[in-house]
């Protein structure tokens, strides 16, 4: 199969399966300004009600490194990053979007993983299997999940 | 010595550890003294090559009092059963040459004293750094005419533990200069490489964040002076390479295999970060 045909096919598949279409900014197209991302990755506001699920393990697993007092039901909250209490006061929506999408743009060399990034990894694995990754790379969170968690973070006021 | 005690431990170890878990919670053991006689250095000045910290700590110091207690007496240490099995293997003839380990090395307590403390180590004939496991398999193949054991299989990890026991309490002292230096540098590079989709290096967790909680885990400095370790979680002995593999996998990366040149180099480097801590193997972890 020629490369051109393969690309065309892949593009078609992507459009069909991920509804990448209308308004969604692809991970490699995200524009950072001083670590912040001005426009919504989906073109629409996020739903803060999905925030707690994304923060939990099995999804964004933010809780592995951060404490969130508003979510006492989430067990074993980590201490690596600062508690997320009050982040809605400390950061703007654009800054929070930038931090979640790729914290290294805001904090040099940050330990915090980039949740909306698909390139530049060393020995990328297939999830947590320890095997090499094959095929298309998906970011840890979808554009919609990034927007939802950002909307939730904005509700965390002191 | 521990021999014989191990069989007892098999019979009553479970009961003892239950008692230990129930009764000593308030009584935090601050010093690790094994069998009331082997005094372990679990905290000491960092080796000169390591700029990251002033003080290095054994993984023992980060575990719960209950888990720490299990390592203080060979009767309670669940790993000792496997050490006893390896003691039998030590004396057992295997392979085409009609030899056992004892045929060349004599009594394990004499023949293997101090060995663990200096491995991984440069091997002149092989022209490379060898781990203890690789040395055992070299003996099996070239001297005994026996099949090599699986790198991190049960027989090998038990033998590695038996050999380590003969150095308990001695300071880890691996050489990082001379012919070993390039391997050591390679291991150091790996230690600071941010692998996988989470882009995390060993240093992110074990150098910059030891002492803090990552989810339910209390992060240690990731030292290997206690390896092989018996983990209560999988109820068996675990090699350092298996632990490395798990940690790399958890970064959502493609791991390296136990025994790979990368993990041999990493083992040398990580061991050198613990130069000065006591050989503790086999230790106990959650």
UniProtKB/TrEMBL annotation, chain A:
Residues 1-21 form the signal peptide. SUPFAM superfamilies: Cytochrome c. The keyword Heme applies. Pfam families: Cytochrom_C. It comes from the Bacteria. InterPro entries: Cyt_c-like_dom, Cyt_c-like_dom_sf, Thiosulf_SoxX. Keywords: Heme, Iron, Metal-binding, Signal. This is Sulfur oxidation c-type cytochrome SoxX.
From TrEMBL, chain B:
Its EC number is 2.8.5.2. Residues 85-172 form the Cytochrome c domain. Belongs to the SoxA family. Its main location: periplasm. It is found in: Periplasm. It catalyses: L-cysteinyl-[SoxY protein] + thiosulfate + 2 Fe(III)-[cytochrome c] = S-sulfosulfanyl-L-cysteinyl-[SoxY protein] + 2 Fe(II)-[cytochrome c] + 2 H(+); S-sulfanyl-L-cysteinyl-[SoxY protein] + thiosulfate + 2 Fe(III)-[cytochrome c] = S-(2-sulfodisulfanyl)-L-cysteinyl-[SoxY protein] + 2 Fe(II)-[cytochrome c] + 2 H(+). Residues 1-26 form the signal peptide. This is SoxAX cytochrome complex subunit A. SUPFAM superfamilies: Cytochrome c (SSF46626). Heterodimer of SoxA and SoxX. The keyword Repressor does not apply. Keywords: Electron transport, Heme, Iron, Metal-binding, Periplasm, Signal, Transferase, Transport. It holds the Pfam family SoxA-TsdA_cyt-c. NCBIfam families: thiosulf_SoxA.
């Amino acid at each position: 199969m020629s490369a051109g045909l393969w690309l065309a096919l892949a593009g078609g598949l992507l459009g069909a399966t991920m509804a990448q279409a209308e308004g969604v900014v692809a991970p490699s197209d995200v524009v950072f300004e001083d670590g912040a991302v001005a426009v919504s990755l989906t073109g629409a506001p996020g739903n803060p009600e999905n925030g707690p699920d994304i923060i939990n393990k099995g999804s964004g697993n933010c809780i592995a490194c951060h404490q969130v007092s508003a979510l006492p039901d989430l067990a074993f909250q980590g201490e690596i990053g600062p508690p997320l209490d009050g982040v809605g006061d400390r950061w703007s929506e654009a800054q929070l979007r930038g931090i979640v999408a790729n914290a290294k743009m805001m904090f040099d060399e940050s330990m915090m993983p980039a949740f909306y990034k698909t390139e530049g990894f060393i020995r990328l694995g297939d999830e947590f299997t320890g095997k090499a990754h094959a095929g298309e790379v998906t970011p840890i969170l979808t554009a919609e999940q990034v927007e939802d968690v950002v909307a939730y973070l904005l509700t965390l006021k002191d | 010595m521990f021999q014989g005690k191990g069989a007892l431990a098999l019979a009553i170890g479970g009961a003892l550890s239950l008692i230990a878990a129930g009764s000593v919670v308030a009584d935090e053991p601050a010093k690790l003294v094994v069998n009331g006689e082997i005094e372990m250095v679990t905290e000491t000045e960092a080796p000169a090559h390591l700029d990251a910290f002033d003080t290095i700590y054994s993984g023992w110091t980060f575990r719960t009092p209950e888990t720490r207690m299990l390592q203080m007496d060979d009767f309670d240490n669940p790993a000792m059963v496997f050490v006893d099995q390896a003691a039998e293997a030590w004396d057992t003839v295997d392979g085409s040459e009609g030899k056992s380990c004892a045929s060349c090395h004599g009594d394990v307590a004499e023949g293997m004293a101090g060995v663990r403390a200096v491995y991984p180590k440069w091997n002149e004939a092989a022209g490379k750094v060898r781990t203890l496991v690789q040395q055992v398999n070299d003996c099996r193949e070239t001297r005994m005419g026996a099949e090599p054991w699986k790198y991190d299989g049960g027989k090998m990890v038990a033998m590695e533990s038996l050999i380590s026991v003969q150095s308990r309490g001695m300071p880890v002292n691996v050489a990082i200069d001379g012919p070993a230096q390039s391997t050591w540098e390679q291991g150091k590079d790996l230690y600071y490489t941010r692998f996988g989709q989470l882009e995390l290096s060993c240093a992110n967790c074990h150098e910059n964040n030891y002492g803090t909680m990552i989810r339910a885990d209390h992060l240690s400095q990731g030292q290997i002076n206690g390896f092989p370790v018996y983990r209560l979680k999988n109820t068996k002995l675990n090699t350092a390479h298996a632990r490395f593999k798990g940690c790399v996998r958890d970064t959502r990366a493609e791991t390296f295999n136990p025994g790979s040149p990368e993990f041999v180099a990493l083992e040398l480097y990580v061991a050198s970060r613990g130069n000065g801590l006591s050989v503790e193997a086999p230790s106990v972890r959650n």
